[in-house]
Amino acid sequence: MELEGSRTLAATPDEVWAALFDRGVLEQAIPGCESLEQNSDTSFTAVVKLKVGPVSARFKGDVELSDIDPGKSCTLSGKGSGGIAGFAKGAARVTLTPEGDQTVLDYTADVAIGGKLAALGNRLIKSTAQKLTDEFFANFNSALADDEEATVA
To answer: Residue 59: which region, alpha, beta or left (left: phi > 0; alpha: psi -120 to 50)?
Structure first.
């Protein structure tokens, strides 16, 4: 399943870039995140509790950042397992473009799912993925604003 989109964020590309690698910001932004551990500068392990249709599960997974062009783009690759609920794996290419005092973040992702999740059907999975993406960016933008206010204060 492919997902793509574009978001305008109220921060400079450097601020958005720093936030993408900030464990605290990501933990706050990821929907259902119970824990997020930073293993290295470019890898994280997360535990996320999600409900997709009638299936509710706790997923444990790893995310690795690669193809890094600082301040401009990177690829996030990840895989997670929710036990009997199934698994998800995929990769997303993220590109940052300055637009005045804001940043346009474009993403293209390719995701594969299996297990009970796959049985739910592509439409339900895609609508849930879109809802979670919207929630992530709302939380991420809020965390950026909070971080900027803390810096100014």
So the answer is: beta
Other beta carbons less than 10 A from residue 100's beta carbon: 7
Strand, coil or helix: 32: coil
Nearest CA to 44 among 2, 68, 95, 79?
79
CB-neighbour burial class of residue 4 (10 A; exposed 0-12, middle 13-18, buried 19+): exposed
Mean predicted lDDT score pLDDT of the chain: 88
**pLDDT tens for each residue of 120-138:** 777 888 888 888 888 998 8
Confidence of residue 152 (pLDDT cuts 50, 70, 90): very low
The strand pair at 73-81 and 43-52 is best described as: unpaired
Angle at 20 between CA 25 and CA 12, to 5 degrees: 100
